[in-house]
Amino acid sequence: MSKPKILIQIDPDAHASVFDAVVAVDSGVDHLLQYHGVEPTQVRDLVHGAIFTRGPADLKQTAIFIGGQNVDAGEDLLRCVTDSFFGPMRVSVLLDANGANTTAAAAVIAAARHLDLRGSKTLVLAATGPVGKRAARLLARQGAHVRVGSRSADRSKTLRNQLLEQVPDAEIEAVQTATGHEVTAALDGVQLVIAAGAAGFELLDGPTRVAAESLQVAIDLNAVPPLGIAGVEVMDKGQERDGMICYGAIGVGGTKMKLHKAAVQKLFESNDQVIDAEEAFAIGQTLE
Hints:
Layout: E1 6-10, H1 18-26, E2 31-35, H2 40-51, E3 62-66, H3 71-83, E4 92-95, H4 100-112, E5 121-125, H5 130-141, E6 145-150, H6 153-166, E7 171-176, H7 180-186, E8 192-195, H8 206-211, E9 217-220, E10 237-241, E11 244-247, H9 249-266, E12 274-275, H10 277-285
Parallel strand pairs: 1-2, 1-3, 3-4, 4-12, 5-6, 5-8, 6-7, 8-9, 9-11
Antiparallel strand pairs: 10-11
């Protein structure tokens, strides 16, 4: 008889995410153990508690989920978790701090329904944010030409260099998008735009979007007014508007939720998985 599925939720925030807990329960986890306010120095003891209480054959029934609002803190915790493993003594772990990995993966999956991403010219607005970074990286891995937009030219160039280290053969261009004129220039020849900015900031206005002759797909990941792309509705899911296919935050959110649950379920297939953005994207492709 197999052991019950235990998910250990490690969260750097003062309160562990209720959203992540509900998704875990809905994903079929038998027991959810939540730890909040977790510092990197505390991770090893938590991990050892997970890997030393069951025999190697049963370790796939234990898994770790890293959440929280701070994606950088989540990445630090992931490194601490994997550094605590040795030999066969390990469990599978999923990083989805602030939903960045599953949201970025869902956005790129949505785009791929309508475009052959390999060779396509794409623009990610607010690319230096947590979701934007991952969307840009996933697009680059799919062979797209990626323009990474930011209000700061220096931040955009820094991100370009980081992405080229991760995807050495990628075509990545740093662009500044602080003004409407700069956004217009960045859209030149682009077939796909993904707006991944913070809530309540318009990154692409309506006239500029409509005037972008090459634009075929527009994806806005902001659900809080004003939306990130004017003229795209939050519920849009493959809706045609002004001659282009549009997705809003909730339109993408359905795929994100399915992906999140599927990723949690996949943790219990083996004890040696590390699910980051690329792995989440691969899981999402199996859901289509």
